[in-house]
Specification:
The complex is a heterodimer of chains A (258) and B (171). Chain A has 258 residues and is α+β, with helices and mostly antiparallel strands. In chain A, 13% of the residues lie in helices and 30% in strands. Chain A has 2 helices and 11 strands. In chain A, the strands form 3 sheets. Chain A has a 7-stranded antiparallel beta sheet, covered by helices on one side. Chain A has a two-stranded antiparallel ribbon with strand order 1-2. In chain A, strands 6-7 form a two-stranded antiparallel sheet. In chain B, 55% of the residues lie in helices and 2% in strands. In chain B, helix 2 crosses helix 5 and helix 6 runs antiparallel to helix 7. Chain B is globular and about 50 Å long. Chain B starts with a strand and ends with a helix. Classes of the chains: A alpha+beta (258), B mainly alpha (171).
Chain lengths: 258, 171
Amino acid sequence: MGIADGKGVLRKIAFQLGDTFFRFAVNPDNMVYANPHRTTAVKTKSRIIIEDFQEDIPTVTISGTTGFNPTGVASDRGIAKIREMKNFLAKYASMGGNGNKSSADFYFHDFTNMEHYVVHLSPEGVNYTQDANSPLTYRYDIKFIILRKAGEMDPDDMASPEIGNRFPTLPNGSAVVGNNGVGSGVQDGSGNTSDDTPYDPSSGNDSIYNKDQGSNYVPNTSGTAVNPQVPSSNAHSLGQTGLGYALGYYLRNNGGGR
Amino acid sequence: MKYATDLIRLISNVPVLIDGTVPLNQVEDDPFVSILYTPTYSLSTVARLTQNLLNNGKIEVAQETLDETTLVYKAFNSNLASAFPSMYTLLRVVALESFSLLYMIDNDPVQLQYVSKKDILRTRENLNYLADFFGTQSDYHHFIQTMRDMNISLGYLQNQIEVIMSERGVN
């Protein structure tokens, strides 16, 4: 049974799924918290190079027996307790599937160390063992992956709203030539800022096309119309360069081609 | 001539069956249905030829950073591959088709005899389908501009294959 002083009983750990608890009648024999670290140590000629990627997946492993008849209460008997544990874990395991874990959190309470975690069954899962050396008891061995502390929020529930339009169709004032964002609100002598000037469609403002995305494709810079239907070298070279730049076949910084 | 690593990474290993169709994972949820465009999950002859070159390591790569406006950059800097795998596959098909066309024009114009106007029209239809889909997802709006540019460019090329061949001295 749990560690008892005759009055109270110290129960070290418990599982919780929703409002349902699984309490141990006998504390586990063994409990291991593992916190591996994502470090790569590379041995070079002159020194050791460390590459650090912070924490790996922490785990907690518990193992022990449910005892034979630890408290004298029928429901605390070893066989009843192991059945209860099997049902409890099987119920949780069946709630996931199709790539998703259960939406209900599984809590691992470690009362003595005052640590409480949201956990999930690790790939190794649970082992239940019966052994001829101790025919009346059952052993269990459970490995959990620690997802987060119980008090922390589920990352799926956190929102990171994006306000505004990241890819505006029309130019914003900051990208106009000669007004590179800094001081874009500065007023001139008549109290106007450079942003005040409305776009005049008749002015032939060629920077309106492909604004803020870099000028990706200019069909024809010479001013003469090219008819793509008519066979001409002009037409296919426009198509070739346009397609090459849009795809990444040509590099923009050295004028195409390498 | 060398090509950017990312570009080659995107177009390499596009899964293809022996008849040229690109297999899809059928488990995926409802596919996007465009009112105007129907996608074709298949590769043209010239794309298959380019795949052979890629598989045999005949195409050289260079470690170059691509411009943010390019399709390749956008494909690798979005979650399209994990969120919409079939769309991502189609995007790779389109990229491979476009690359094949440009590669053959530059390096082996004789192979252009296998390019038909229908192949280009099919790629354009796929591009339009993708652009239509991207229009429904605000995260992918920035793709559309590149899609449109590619569509226009392919439009310029589709009637010019014979001109290119005769210019390159291939009859």
